[in-house]
Amino acid sequence: MPTIRVTVPAGAWSTEEKAKIAETLTGGLAGVAADAGKGDIKGYINVQIMEAASGGYAVGGHVVG
Questions:
Q1: Are 26 and 47 contacting, i.e. CB atoms less than 8 angstroms apart?
Q2: Is 44 in contact with 2 (CB distance < 8 Å)?
Q3: Which residues of 6-45 are buried (b: 16+ CB within 10 A; e: fewer)?
Q4: Is the dihedral of CA 25, 42, 44, 2 positive or negative?
Q5: Which residues contact 5 (CB under 8 A, 6 or more apart)?
Q6: d(CA 33, CA 54)
Q7: pLDDT tens-digit profile, the chain (65 residues)
Q8: Which residues pair with 49 in a beta bridge?
Q9: Helix (H/G/I), strand (E/B), else coil: 4
């Protein structure tokens, strides 16, 4: 089962926005799989959206949030 993991700042995205993120990422990966002849894998794609605590991640070596 393919898994896509996304980490966002805590509280930055609403439930509806996270649903749109999951829908868009699922569609993108399913499209790549279909183009590669792997069939329709949409129902098997797992998207995990984690919320990092303030200061819980870094970009370019600098703590964010």
A1: yes
A2: yes
A3: eebeeeebeeeebeebbeebbeebbeebeeeeeeebeeeb
A4: negative
A5: 47, 48, 50
A6: 35
A7: 899 999 998 999 999 999 999 999 999 999 999 999 999 999 999 999 999 998 888 889 999 87
A8: 6
A9: strand
pLDDT at 64: 81
Task: Write out the two tokens for 8.
Answer: 């966002």
Tokens of 35: 């183009």
Residue ranges in 1-64 assigned as alpha helix (H): 15-35
At residue 57, the 3 state secondary structure works out as strand
DSSP class of 12: S
Instruction: Say which amino acid occupies 4.
Output: I
